[in-house]
């Protein structure tokens, strides 16, 4: 079949629903594919497919999600890291499932409702680019292999969320006013600590300590904290306290006044290149899923690399993703392993 045939990840939300209609307007033959993680939602996705008259299918990804995302998510917290499950899921579970469905129906293209874009580079090569949406979702796609980019379509990448909502109303979609989904799909209530505890094998309670080792109080397990956290500590002090370090080997959480959280160098592992870059060139880096970008220079080291930050960044956190940009282009990404702090 091929040609203008596309498999669309149809979640049942407003973004993928609008993407379906835009793909049809662009002349694609659309196949909707819903991914089952065991928490329901098929009915909304199927209703969208019926509204637009597109074939609908479902794929069970629960086993892959457990092996590649949920299990590592739990192990990261046990090790004192702060994981980023969506960035792991996209290259290992979600997009592979959509590409498998594309092979089944003979489609050349795969699409999702992400706010990202694919643009042509200087030599005509496909480049991953940030979307127009204020919350750049290209960040979460920065682990996709470069050779997939030539087969990807992001129909809503040039729209803001408010525009997508209005398009959904214009199209008469039943999901036009449906709330946005939670960031972690397998923890719909957002309480990741309770989710970890329900699975068992969580870290035991331990001590809050200061930099000198003085005990400040007790905590309920290192899995409940992340570097830079201020809220929910429950420790009385003359000034605000922040999580400065997590020590899984002793189950200690180090608290400070926050002046020691700024870093000037970040190291990472498993660099995923998406566009050519020159060693040491000035670029920007996003060190967490937020709007903040920091000017930096990147130096490959082994299979990872080192980022020399031209402006200090607050609390780079092991387990999070460093994504490199040149303007709107996503140059690549690596998993943060450590940072060099500036003495407070």
Walkthrough of the structure:
The protein is an alpha/beta fold and 344 residues long. The chain has six helices and 17 strands. The chain has helices spanning 14-25, 42-52, 62-78, 85-105, 161-170, 192-199, and strands at 5-9, 29-36, 56-60, 109-111, 116-120, 126-130, 152-153, 206-209, 215-219, 242-247, 252-256, 262-273, 282-286, 294-301, 304-314, 321-326, 329-341. The strands form four sheets. A six-stranded antiparallel barrel has the order 12-15-14-13-16-17. Strands 3-2-1-4-7 form a five-stranded parallel β-sheet, sandwiched between helices. The protein has a four-stranded mixed β-sheet with strand order 9-8-11-10, with no helix packed on it. A hairpin with a 7-residue loop joins strand 13 (282-286) and strand 14 (294-301). Helix 1 packs across helix 5 and helix 3 (62-78) packs antiparallel against helix 4 (85-105). It is globular, with a radius of gyration of 22 Å.
């Amino acid at each position: 079949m091929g040609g203008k045939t596309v498999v669309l990840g149809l979640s049942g939300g407003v973004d993928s629903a609008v993407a379906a209609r835009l793909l049809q307007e662009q002349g694609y033959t659309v196949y909707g594919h819903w991914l089952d993680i065991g928490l329901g939602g098929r009915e909304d996705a199927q209703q969208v497919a019926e509204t637009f008259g597109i074939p609908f299918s479902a794929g069970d990804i629960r086993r892959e999600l457990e092996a590649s995302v949920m299990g590592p998510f739990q192990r990261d917290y046990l090790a004192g890291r702060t994981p980023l499950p969506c960035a792991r899921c996209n290259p290992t579970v979600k997009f592979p499932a959509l590409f498998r469905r594309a092979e089944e129906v003979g489609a050349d293209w795969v699409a999702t409702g992400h706010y990202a874009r694919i643009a042509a580079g200087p030599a005509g090569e496909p480049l991953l680019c940030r979307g127009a949406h204020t919350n750049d979702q290209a960040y979460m796609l920065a682990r996709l292999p470069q050779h997939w980019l030539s087969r990807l379509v992001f129909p809503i990448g040039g729209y803001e969320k408010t525009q997508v909502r209005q398009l959904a109303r214009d199209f008469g979609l039943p999901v036009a006013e449906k709330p946005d989904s939670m960031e972690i799909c397998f923890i719909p209530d957002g309480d990741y600590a309770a989710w970890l505890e329900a699975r068992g094998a969580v870290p035991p309670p331990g001590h809050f300590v200061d930099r000198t080792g003085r005990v400040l109080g007790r905590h309920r397990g290192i899995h409940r904290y992340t570097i830079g956290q201020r809220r929910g500590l429950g420790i009385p002090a003359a000034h605000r306290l922040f999580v400065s370090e997590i020590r899984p080997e002793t189950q200690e959480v180090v608290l400070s006044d926050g002046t020691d959280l700024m870093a000037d160098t970040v190291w990472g592992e498993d660099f995923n290149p998406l566009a050519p870059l020159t060693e040491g060139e000035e670029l920007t880096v996003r060190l967490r899923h937020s709007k903040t970008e920091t000017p930096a220079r990147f130096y490959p080291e082994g299979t990872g690399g080192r980022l020399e930050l031209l402006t200090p960044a607050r609390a780079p956190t092991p387990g999070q993703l460093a994504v490199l940009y040149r303007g709107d282009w996503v140059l690549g990404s690596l998993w943060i392993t450590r940072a060099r702090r500036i003495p407070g």
